[in-house]
Amino acid sequence: MKELNPFLITDYISTDYFCNRKIESERIISAIENGRNITLLSIRRLGKTGLIKHIFYKLNKKSKLRLLYIDILPTNNLKDFIKVLSDAIIKDEQKKSGNYLRKIAKLISGIKANLTFDEFSGIPKLELDYKNSYDAINSLSQIFSYFAEQKEKYIIAIDEFQQIISYPEKNIEALLRTNIQHQHKDNFIFSGSNKHLLTSIFSDYGRPFYQSADFLELKRLDISEYSQFIENHLTIRKQNIDIDLIKEVIQYLDCHTFYVQYFFNRLFELREKNITKETIEYLKHNILIEKEYIYYSYRNLVTSSQFQLLEAIAKEKSVKETTSHEFIGKYKLKQASSVNRSLKALLDKELVYFENLEYKVYDVFFSKWLEKL
Ligand SMILES: Nc1ncnc2c1ncn2[C@@H]1O[C@H](COP(=O)(O)OP(=O)(O)OP(=O)(O)O)[C@@H](O)[C@H]1O
Ligand SMILES: [Mg+2]
Q1: CA 20 to 30 Å from 141, out of 56, 147, 267, 355?
Q2: CA atoms in the 13 A half-sphere facing the CB of 113
Q3: Domain ranges, ordered by start, for the chain
Q4: CA nearest 369: which of 305, 295, 318?
Q5: Would you give the DSSP letter of residue 194?
Q6: Residue 205, by phi and psi: left (phi above 0), alpha (psi -120 to 50) or beta?
Q7: pLDDT tens, 124-143?
Q8: C-alpha span between 319 and 276 (Å, rounded)
Q9: Cβ pair 65, 71 in contact under 8 A
Q10: Measured from the CB, is residue 227 less than 6 Å from ligand 1?
Q11: Rounded to an integer, what distance in angstroms lies between the CA atom of residue 155 and that of residue 153?
C-alpha cells in the first residue's frame, strides 16, 4: 500500500497531521477545565471540526473525560437531535465498557427507543417512535439525567449548532438551554459557520442561551507556521520544495485551510522529487479544469445578475462596497438596488461571505476560475 498522504482533507488522524492551533486549543481546554461552555465559529472550511477532533484527541490522552461529538447538520427536528445524541452515547459506552448494554438499558427505555443490531456489522441501531412532541421533550430530559448520573465529566461538542433554529418545535432554544443549564459537571462546545445566527443565539439579550458560552472565532492559520508544517511533511517524504513557493500557494489560496490542504494533497500525489514553479502552475490549472463542469452548473443555480456580481467580486478578490459607483461602473452591473438583491441571494446561498468588512467568493477554486473568465 502507498504511504499515507499527509495532507488530510477528510478526517482527523493525530497531532502530526494537524497544523498548530495551539492557542485556540489551550483556550478551549482551559474553558472546559474551568467549567465554561464555548462557542467556536468561523467561515466554512477553516478548521472548526478539525479543531474539535484535535482537542478531543489531546484530552483523550490525558484525562478521564467522556467526549461526545455530534454533527447536527443533517437533523431536522428534536427527534433527530435525540437520535444523534443517543447514538453518540451508545457508541461511547460501547467503546468504554464491556457491559455497556446493561448500563444503557435504562436510558433506552427512558427515551422510548428500540435497540436493534445490524445483521452484518453488529453495530447497535436505535429506532425512535414518538407519538407527540411531549415524548421528544421527555426523552431529552432523560438523556440529560443520564449525563448527570454518570460520575465522569462529559464534554459534548455540538457541531453546526445553528441548525436548531430550523427545528419546527416551539421554544427549542429554551428547552435545550434548561437541560444544559442543569448539567453542573458537564460542558459544551457549540460550533458553526453561520456567524450571524450563532452570535444572535448567544448574544441577543432575552434569548435563552444569552451569554451562556465564551466565544472563540477561528482565524486563518499563520502563514509562516503553515508553510513550515507543509515543508516538513514534504521533506521528510523526500520531496523538495522552496518554502517561498509554499507561501505563494498559501497566499494564492487565501490561506483557506481546506483549499490549501486539498492543493498539497494533490501536489503530494504527484510524488515529484523536486517540486518546481512549473509543477505548481500545472496543478493550479488542472484543478480548475477538473472542477469546471461544476462551476458551469453553478451558473444555472443563480440568475445572470447574480453570476455577474460573483464574477466581479472574484476579479476584485474582495470588495468592500458592492454598490459603489466605481465598482458598478467597472463591471457594468445594474443599479445599486439590484446589486443589493443579488448580493443577499449570494450570501444566502453561501456562494459569497462577509468577513472583515469585505465580501469574498466562498469557494476559493471557484473564485480563481471566475477570475479567469
Ligand atoms: N490545523 C489544521 N491542519 C491541517 N489540516 C487542517 C487543519 N484544520 C483543518 N484542517 C483540514 O481542513 C479541512 C477543513 O477543516 P474542517 O472540516 O475542520 O473545517 P470546518 O470549519 O469544520 O468546515 P465546515 O464549516 O464546512 O464544517 C479538513 O479537511 C481538515 O482536515
Ligand atoms: Mg465542520
Answers
A1: 56
A2: 29
A3: 21-217, 302-373
A4: 295
A5: -
A6: beta
A7: 888 888 888 888 889 999 99
A8: 32
A9: no
A10: no
A11: 7
Of residues 47, 41, 69, the one with CA closest to residue 193: 41
> How many CA atoms lie within 13 Å of 171's alpha carbon, on the beta-carbon side?
7
Ligand 1: residue of 22, 46, 197 to mutate (most ligand atoms within 8 A of CB) is 46
- Is 19 touching ligand 1 by the criterion CB < 6 Å? yes
**Atom of ligand 1 lying closest to residue 160 CA:** 27
206 — alpha (psi -120 to 50), left (phi > 0) or beta? Answer: left
- Give pLDDT tens digits for 75-107: 999 999 999 999 999 999 888 877 888 888 888
Cell of 277: 514553479
- The identity of residue 28, as a single letter, is I
The reply to whether CATH 3.55.40.20 applies to domain 21-217 is no
Grid cell in block for residue 46: 477553516
* Rounded Cα–Cα distance for residues 114 and 129 (Å): 8
Record: fold of 302-373: Arc Repressor Mutant, subunit A (1.10.10)
Mean pLDDT check: name the lowest of 137-141, 158-162, 281-285: 137-141
Instruction: Verify whether ligand 1 is closer than 6 Å to residue 192 (CB atom).
Output: no
